[in-house]
Write a structure and sequence with these properties.
Number of strands: 4
Largest sheet: 4 strands, antiparallel
Low-confidence stretches: 17-30, 143-151
Helix content: 40-55%
Distance between the termini: 72 Å
Mean pLDDT: 77
Strand order of the largest sheet: 2-3-1-4
Length: 153
């Protein structure tokens, strides 16, 4: 299958190559917000006591070899409203129908060309997000959550 055929199939699956494709990993990293802000955004989902009843909280994670396909998938997920957590991990809180549409579109991408890629779409509960631990960077999640306990004697 030619590159043009692959791009046509990706376009059919809702992914567009009309935007300029960045060529360096530095550009890809610059799309990420600071770690503090990413953690704050994740935790804001756990503090929302009145979540929409028909919404689905889920992660999308991928391991895609092709730089072009990976960038197109990243842009697609952001356009759909997913929040980028890491280079290849996104978090979303969306209506169930949109969750199903994203799964379907990503399945079409996976089937569009021969590859050894993998894409995970993983539902998650706010309880599991609350139990999140950040490893590898000095970041006090308790301060961000304003959940430190103070004891008075």
């Amino acid at each position: 299958m030619t590159v043009e055929e692959i791009l046509a199939k990706l376009h059919e699956a809702g992914l567009s190559s009309t935007n300029v494709i960045k060529t360096s990993n530095q550009d890809e990293m610059s799309e990420l917000d600071t770690l503090d802000n990413r953690v704050k955004r994740i935790l804001s989902l756990t503090s929302n006591h009145y979540s929409k009843p028909k919404n689905m909280l889920f992660f999308v994670m991928y391991d895609i070899e092709s730089n072009k396909v990976r960038r197109l998938v990243a842009k697609y997920l952001i356009r759909q409203g997913c929040f980028r957590i890491q280079r290849s991990i996104y978090l979303a809180d969306m209506p169930f129908e949109k969750y199903e549409q994203i799964k379907s579109d990503l399945a079409e991408v996976q089937a569009a060309y021969e590859n050894k890629d993998s894409i995970f779409v993983v539902p998650i509960s706010t309880d599991y997000l609350k139990a999140m631990k950040v490893i590898g960077k000095a970041l006090d999640v308790n301060i961000i959550m304003h959940s430190q306990n103070t004891l008075f004697f």
